[in-house]
Amino acid sequence: MADTETTVQAQELDGELAATAREELGDERILEMLRTMVLLRRFEHHAGRAYQRRKIQGFCHLYSGQEAVAVGSLSAATMEDYIVSHYREHGHALARGMEPKAVMAELFGKVTGCAGGKGGSMHLYDVERRFMGGWGIVGGQIALGNGMAFAAKYREEEAVCIAYLGDGAVHQGIVHETLNMAQVWGLPLIAIVENNEYAMGTALERVSAVTDLEKKALAYDMAAETVDGQDVFAVYDAVKRARDRAVAGEGPTWMDIHTYRYYGHSMTDPATYRTREEVDEVKDLKDPIVRLSNWMIAEGMATQEEVDAIDDEMEELVKECVAFADESDQPDPSALTADVYVEWNADID
Ligand SMILES: Cc1ncc(C[n+]2csc(CCOP(=O)(O)OP(=O)(O)O)c2C)c(N)n1
Ligand SMILES: [Mg+2]
Fold this sequence. Notes:
Blueprint: H1 15-52, H2 67-75, E1 82-85, H3 90-95, H4 100-107, E2 131-134, H5 140-154, E3 161-166, H6 173-184, E4 189-195, E5 198-199, E6 202-203, H7 204-207, E7 223-228, H8 232-247, E8 253-258, H9 276-286, H10 288-298, H11 304-327
Parallel strand pairs: 1-2, 1-3, 3-4, 4-8, 7-8
Antiparallel strand pairs: 5-6
Bound molecules: thiamine diphosphate and magnesium ion.
Residues 166-168, 196, 198-199 line the site of magnesium ion.
């Protein structure tokens, strides 16, 4: 079955939220959101294959299944906003509008990559789009994001920082120090927990005394909500409201966004801690792309043939990205010591 094929049993999107989003965004933007979600899905499929062919070295964590979180949340952001993510960040980078060829080339460690081939899968970066990186230290990025939120407030920018973290990061001490500081100082931070139910091979309920993660914000008297992360408009709506509050000076928001990852933790994880039936059930009932395309077809915004054509188009686009990455050069060995220290500049001193 093609990834985008209509399934009868897939749950419907929240009709009210979809109708509101349609009014706010318009049909063109919504079509673009679908295209981006399909791009993310095809991109990860090919990234996985390239990893198996040993074209991608090191770690590689795929985002498939979680597309509605990146696309819904970043559709509510402006280009003034700062974005910071964890190591499962290919989807956020692409949804932010980063050039897919530069993202794939970075995965391949090539000089044409968005970080010159020195970052790889976990360290995508694009300062022009205020995409301030994927980060490998679980939870660490939320403190960096708080700094960005502080900077936005200090400089009186009409901007927020959206910081993504996993359910496994929620118990890190740094997360709680950050939340407290964000609330005390009223910082425009939107902390998005991409709750995909597992941290590596460990299910949330095995490690968390509180499994309703929204409650974590109670300790900081912070605005919080739980969101269906398989419904792109639910994510868009929640983040848009949080952003409106943040730029109005009303402080940070904590979000427990429920989603699911289709692949294992990383490419080397056989995922024996969950059953195939569990994964198939999510794919059948909750796939975010199928739910969105079903709704668009029902609303007469697209036909199944048009949805299939998007799938084919993205498949071709990603194949071009793979060819580009493959043909690109490795960084010159001299790049090893570049950008490590700030260059001495006597004029500044
Ligand atoms: C501080 C720290 N501790 C442990 C690790 C090892 N580690 C890498 S990913 C991971 C699980 C994180 O899971 P989660 O936050 O749920 O994100 P997901 O992979 O599900 O997207 C762990 C423990 C790490 N990278 N950093
Ligand atoms: Mg997780």
